[in-house]
Every structure is written in structure tokens, then in C-alpha cells.
Amino acid sequence: TTAIIQGKKRFRISEFIQDDPYFVAKVVPFESNRALTKDKRFNALIASVKDLAIQIINLSPNLPSDSVFAIRNIESPVFLVNFISSNMNISVDEKQNLLAIDDLVERASMVLGLLTRELQIIELKNQIQSKVKIDLDKQQRDYLLNQQLKTIQEELGDNSHTQDIAELRNRSKIKNWPDNVAEVFNKELLKLQRMNPSAMEYSMQLNYLEILIDLPWNEHTKDNFDLKRARKILDQDHYGLETVKDRIIEYLAVLKLKGDMKSPILCLFGPPGVGKTSLGKSVARAVDRNYIRMSLGGLRDEAEIRGHRKTYIGAMPGRVLQSIKRAKASNPVFVLDEIDKVIGANINGDPSAALLEVLDPEQNNSFYDNFVELEYDLSKVMFIATANNLSTIHPALRDRMEIIEINGYLLEEKLEIARKHLLPKQLSEHGVTPEQLKFEKKIFERIIDGYTRESGVRDLEKKIAKVIRHQARFIAGDDSYNINVTEEDIRKILGPIKYQKEQDDKTHIAGVVTGLAWTPVGGEILFVETSLSRGTGKLTLTGNLGEVMKESATLAFEYLKSHGSEFGLNPEVFEKWNVHMHIPEGATPKDGPSAGITMLSALASAFTQRNVKPRLAMTGEITLRGKVLAVGGIKEKILAARRSGIKEIILPSDNQKDIEEIKPAYIKGIKFHYVELMSQVIHLALADSKVAKPLNINY
Predict the structure, then answer these.
(1) Do 640 and 558 fall into the same domain?
(2) Are residues 69 and 109 part of one domain?
(3) Do 564 and 606 belong to one domain?
(4) What is the rounded distance in angstroms from the CA atom of residue 322 to the CA atom of residue 106?
(5) 281 pLDDT exceeds 60?
(6) What is the C-alpha separation between 238 and 270, in angstroms, rounded?
(7) Which listed site, 221, 261, 374, 591, has its alpha carbon 20 to 30 Å from 508?
(8) 3-class SS of residue 4
């Protein structure tokens, strides 16, 4: 049974008569409110109540939309307030309080407040529901797409994204890397998981993580501290080079005693072909370390050392960390080849400055690569740099390295190297056994003296290889050939002799003197030729001379003018003869101060028409005061003199200390004269005898 009850009028209970079985009471009806239709404030209040009620109905999905029509058509303010009050979503106590208010304005104001509260609650609820709905929609969409992608990958047999992440995570578990590196790796791995595999950033992120995990963080090979074994290996691979070998043995000895120390940073400086680069492999084998080599020749971009920032497309770490990654250990023997060929500061930065951090023992324990964006410890790496010319190395970079000079080889040393190292190596590379082809000592001597002119043995190795290749044709074809290589075979294979052992000028022409020069490829001899012709005292210089050599020639000429009387020369003769000074091989640029005394001797010989002592060479710088100053490259110059059959050498007195440091084998058979004054040079260089058919200088 359903009962519908309609309220007719409000009343107040004055007395209860009974309460069982139902309530009976005396009531007093409320008086009807007076009309307020002309009150503007009341009308505005009623309009606000009506508007709020309509807004609540529109925002509430559970309320019928017809209610809006009903409210808009209610004209009685009393009925409107009562209608809204009875349908509001408020508590019973609040409804009772509304019912008990007699004043219509007060009751309408309370209804307005309750409606405002209800509207705020509904709006806040709608905002929360909308936000939750958006989040749920995105999650549901992502979940649905991922499930579809997973299904497609399973159907195609392609689940590389999941495999990549699983593989990286498994590999990271066995890495013994620093905590900060592990933290960065895990953070970047989470980024990778959230990326779409088809996005460009995915491959960049994957590449970064793979490089990070491939670097040998805290991974070191165990050093072998057997000093005798290390020395034996070094001697097996290279002949001579005692200074370098001693330095490696010293390092191993200290490391064995101390247990931990910074690796040395060596710079092997010397002419090409003396074994600087190959020595790095021997050092690695001697100490049981991995070996890696990086060529710096022509390097012009600083990013090649420090790497590019990983945000760039195609970014990679610098070549230093790439090499460490290939070495698979944090303590390899690292050869920096041709460090003197690095291009200086340019538009791409300064590679030499970038190398400062790599080669500074105080800084390289925290080397920062722009791609990895983490500090890497290079302090355990044994760096060995090689160079031909120290003058082209950045001064600050040169200061950070321990310079070890490697000189050229003597004939006797080249013979031993050819016999013990070059010949077995080339026979093996060409598939020829020692029984099939033999070289005698005199054959090596013929190749060294007649077909090579170098401080090292690189060209010698090429000549030996050429002979073996030629003979290999007969061995492979079962043709007859000489097992013992003869001098006739050498002439046939290598052609006519290219160099004479002695280059001493036997013509005894006035004004021709032998000098000694240093070049990046070793020492060389050069001839200074001077001729006189009648004229007005003009000095002409040819031979592609640099500014320093031109200044030396001018100094020598002015000295001879001012001291001509000491050599029996009339001062007027210098105004009657033109002087032409030439240094052969004009296509080759020549510069430096060390030819000063050679030019002076040539001028003195030309004007006095006296012979220059045979098989005599010299080097030294001159001053306007008549002093002879020290020069560099003495060891290389002496080797060049020995190759050319020089028996006497004039040197500045200050260079005597350099001779004392040279092994006796290098200076055997050479007599040295030490001078301080230019006058001493002339007296030592010139013989007492005149040349044949001398010029009449003092005419």
C-alpha cells in the first residue's frame, strides 16, 4: 500500500494529547508572510536561489532535467523556497531548522547558503571525477596499446624491446662499478622502459646504456711483477733502448714494493723507425697488460678527445674512452702515437688542451667525457706517447710527460736488429723458412750502407722484405735460386747503389765546408758552398734558407770583415768581391742557428783560398762578439757524421757535456774539438796549404 501525503500548512505543536496508537496534539498555524514582491533585495535573493537551484540540477546527473522547467515557472516566492527546501540534499536536522524559521527572508537566505555549499561540493566532485576519468582513460589506452603491441611482436617473433632491457639489466648485475654509475644506469634504464622502441630517442638511449655498461669500470688486469721475465721480453723484442727498458723495470719494481701507484706518462722522442710505437706492445706483454693504440696525427677536433654531448644525433664518446672500452680493462698500456702531429687551437677547439686532463697524473683520476657525463679514472693507465719533434708539442702538455729520447742506431746495432728481429719477422710474414733463404752479415752491411740513409730501421726492413719477395717467386715456382743471398742478387733486386758510405768532398775546392744538421727524421750532413766573383762586396744567399740561417751568414761575413787582418786579408778586398753562398738541395727548406760556424769557415776558406781539413764537420751557433754557442741534436748529428765517414767534429765547448752522456760505441773513431771563439773555429778548420790554382784575392 502506498500513501501520498501532501503538506498543506506549517504549524507549531502547543500540546500533545496522546501518543498511542498515534499522535494527537493541539497545533497553532504559522501566520502567512507579508508580501515582499516590491523589495528589491528580496527579489534578488529569490533570483539567486532560483539560479543556484538550476545550476545544481544541471550539474547533478541524478536529478531530472524537468525540474529546471518547474522551478522557472514557480512565481510564488514562498512556494519556491518550500519546494527547493524539500528537495535539497541536506540532512533531516537542517530541513527541520529550515521548517522552523518563520521569516521568509531569513529562510531564503539559509536556503541560499545551503545551495551554495551544495554547488561547491558538486563542482569539486565533478573535478575529481573528471581527473580520475582522464588518468584512467590514459592508463587504459596505454595498457591496451601495449597489449596490442606485445601481441603483434609475439606473432611476428619480435620482442627486442623487452629483450634489450632484460639483457641490460642482467649485465648490470655482474658489473662492479661505482655506486654513482649504478645509480645513473638504473635511472636511464627506467627512461628506456618508458620509451617507444620506434622513436629516435630510443636508439640513442639504448646506445648510451650499452656504452655505459661496456666500459670496464673498476676492471683491471693483474700485473706480472717478475722483473727478470719483463726484462727478457723487452730484450727479445727490441735491441738497445736501454733507457726506456730501465724506466719500465723501475716502475714495476716500485709497484711491486708499494702495491699501488700512479702509472708513468712517458713520451718517447726520436726519429722515425727506431721502434717507439712497437715498444708499447712489448711493454704491455712484459707487464701482462692489455694493449691499445690511438693515432693522434692530424687530430683537430677537441670532441675527438672529450666526446660529444649525447643529445646530438650520432653522438659518441671521445676516442680515449672508446679505446679504453676496446681494451676491456682500466689499466692498459695506452700508446698515443704521433702526439707531435696534433693540430693546435682552431675553430673546433684545442685538442692539445683537451689532452692535458688525460695526461696529468693529478687530474686524470676524474676524466670527464661529454657523452658519458660521468667521471672516469684513468690514473691506472700506462700512457706512452711517441713524437718525432718536441718543438711542436704544446708546452704545458710536454711538461706533464716524462721525456725519454731514443737515438738512431749505429751500423753495428742495425746489423743486430736485422739479424735477430727484421729477418725472422719478414721470413715468417712471407712464408719462407730460414733454411730456404739465408742472409750473411756482409749482405746486411751492403743494404744498410748502399740502400738506406736513416736513423731507424724502417727502410731497412722494407729492403729486406723486397729481397725476400723476389726470392719467394723462385721458391714457390720450384725454380733454381741462391739460398745464400749474394751481392749480385742485391744489385739485381734493389738496383744500383743509392748512397756512398763516405760523402767527404775530395776535390778540395776553397769555400766548401761540411756542416751537421738536425731534422725530425734524424741527423744529416750538409755542405756550405761559397764562391767569389769580382764586384762590390754583395752577399747573395741561395738554397731555400730560413731567416735564422740568413742572419747567421750575415753575422759570419761581418765578423770576417772586422777580423780579416788576423788571416792576412786586406780590409779592402771585401769591397772588391761579391760573395755567393749556397747550400745544395734547394728544394728542401733549411733553417736554424747551428750552421753559423760552418758558414764562417766557408767564407774564411774562400777569402784565404786555403784548403778545409778533410773529413771534418762542424756545428755551432755564432754571435756578433765572436762567441760560439751550444746547439742541440748532438747525438743525431754524430750518427750522421759516422754514416758519412767523418773523422773530426768541431763542437761548442758547452756541448761537451752531451758527448759525455753518449755511449762510447757511438763516438768511436771520431775526434772532437771544443771551441769557445770563432777564431778558434777558423784555425781548426783550415789547413795551411792553399788550394790548387788559387784566386788572387789581394789584387
Answers:
(1) yes
(2) yes
(3) yes
(4) 84
(5) yes
(6) 15
(7) 591
(8) coil
Q: For residue 639, count CB atoms less than 10 angstroms from its CB and return exposed for 0-12, middle for 13-18, buried for 19 or more.
A: buried
pLDDT of residue 581: 93
Percent of the chain at pLDDT > 70 equals 93
| CB burial of residue 200 (10 Å; 0-12, 13-18, 19+) | exposed
- Set of cell numbers at residue 558: 761581418
Q: Which three cell numbers stand for residue 55?
A: 545550476
Task: Clarify whether residues 383 and 234 are in a common domain.
Answer: yes
User: b/e string for 495-509 if b means 16 or more Cβ within 10 A?
Assistant: eeeeeeeeeeeeeeb
Domain residues for the domain of 184 are 160-214
Q: How many CB atoms lie within 10 A of CB 566?
A: 12
Instruction: Indicate whether 328 belongs to any domain.
Output: yes
**pLDDT score of 411 more than 80:** no
Name the residue among 422, 577, 610 with its Cα closest to residue 508.
610
The one-character DSSP state at 420 is: I
pLDDT value at residue 190? 85
Q: Rounded to an integer, what distance in angstroms lies between the CA atom of residue 37 and that of residue 105?
A: 11
* pTM recorded for the entire structure: 0.65
Catalytic (active-site) positions: 594, 637
In a domain, 1, yes or no: no
| Res 36: pLDDT | 59
Does one domain contain both 686 and 563? Answer: yes
Q: CA–CA distance from 554 to each of 36, 579, 621, 624 (Å)?
A: 125, 11, 13, 10
Residue indicated by cell numbers 767523418: 646
| pLDDT(482) > 60 | yes
Establish if 132 belongs to a structural domain.
Answer: no
| pLDDT tens, residue by residue, 188-216 | 888 888 777 777 788 888 888 888 888 88
**Same domain, yes or no, for 295 and 364?**
yes
Same domain, 112 and 203: no
- Boundary (domain end) residue, out of 75, 101, 124: 124
In angstroms and rounded to an integer, the radius of gyration of the C-alpha atoms of the chain is 50
Within 222-290, strands assigned E span: 265-269
- Residue 432: its H or E element: none
| Strand duo 610-612 + 539-542: pairing | unpaired
In 3D space, the residue among 602, 463, 477 whose CA is nearest the CA of residue 527 turns out to be: 602
Closest by CA to 620, choosing from 640, 646, 642, 592, is 592
What is the DSSP-derived secondary structure letter of residue 338?
T
Beta-bridge partners for 522: 519
Among 441, 445, 452, 450, CA closest to 408: 452
**Average confidence (pLDDT) over 380-404:** 87
Mean pLDDT of 66-91: 81
Q: What is the mean pLDDT of the chain?
A: 84
Q: What pLDDT is attached to residue 356?
A: 84
Strands 265-269 and 24-29: unpaired
Number of domains in the chain: 5
Q: Mention every residue, 6+ apart, whose C-beta is less than 8 A from residue 36.
A: 42, 43, 77, 104, 105
> What confidence tens digit (pLDDT) does each residue in 550-564 have?
999 999 999 888 888
